[in-house]
Amino acid sequence: MVADNQTPNVNFFLNFYGPNNSSDFYKEKRKYYSSNIAKDYINYIQTGIQEFKDYVEYANNKEKSSGIFNQNGLLSEKDKKQLRERLRETQSVIWDGLITFEESFGKTWCNSYEQAYELVKSELPKFFKRAGLNPDNMIWYAGLHENTDNRHIHLSFFEKEPVRLRPRKDEKVFSNGKLSKTAILEFKAHLELAATDFKARERRNRQLIQEYVNEQLNENMGLILNNKLLSLAGRFSKKGSLAYASENMSSLRSEIDSITSYMINKSKFSKVAYEDFINLAKYKDERFECYCKRNRCKQPFFFEKKYTQDIYRRLGNIVIDYSFKIKQIDNERLKLNASVRREKLMQKKKLAKQLNECLRLANQFEYEVMSAFQEYMQRLDEAKFSRLVEEGIIDFEM
Question: Which of 29, 293, 366, 394 is deepest in the core (most CB within 10 A)?
């Protein structure tokens, strides 16, 4: 994947700055790379990373905001502070490297932090050995810049103990920071091979599959999938680990795998990436089988099975995580519904009580009206009787 037969896919440029160089130019450079000024080299790498969208996901994380990495992954703010202290204190040569990629090659094989991290982590220690440096005595950090069409990695390293500045008769030492041209050329070749080998292709396909599955779970959650995830979560153990490989999940693993297969085949993109991933494993099995036959040994394992188990484990953990989250959301919904039902029941009870009060009041009112009417009629009768007595119509004697 090159523009022409003469354009290299990978270039590597390297400078070095010793601690005792009397040149004003080197003194200023040394200050820049050894973090002895405010806007130092670390700041430059960090700024270039934050300009590009690939590191937006880290921008909201104060502990991992820059995208600068070393062999252990992304550096936290605490890590960067300690790194600056080491740079200011070191008496080692400080090396500054730049790995650049041909445009289409870089956008395919080094277009994310994950790809850059795996590439540098795997190949830099080998370069140290070829250049006569002890990998265990090196401190390095790097950052991928994607703010240009040509992806490039800024890289810097120095010795924990500056053995190059300690001449001894009984061991090989170096008087300055110049490294072997052969080692540099071999580093370029190995970077290209490592970027495009089986491991890189497998990582890329695995990453694509996980991204497609995550995208579907986040954006295209249908009723069928929702019910599958809820059904799964309903049988999760309330104690212990919920990881795919844990003993707790052994009875549910086939159901998780079924959901994973459903997700893979639901998207044509994830299906294609998965098929390519498995085809790579099959090809490795073919080569491995030939090797075993030539050496008259039994094939100890099969890549296809191993890779299938690995991707289903990774995707299975994603499925479990989403199942758990959806179950929590559903529980909240049920609580709300139950709360609404309780509220409705309470309202009904209140209404019934109010109705009973109204009925009691109505009965009391009716009773009082009847009593008053009867009393009125009684008085009316008494008045009529008295009038008849007075008129002599009725003869009544006490």
Answer: 29
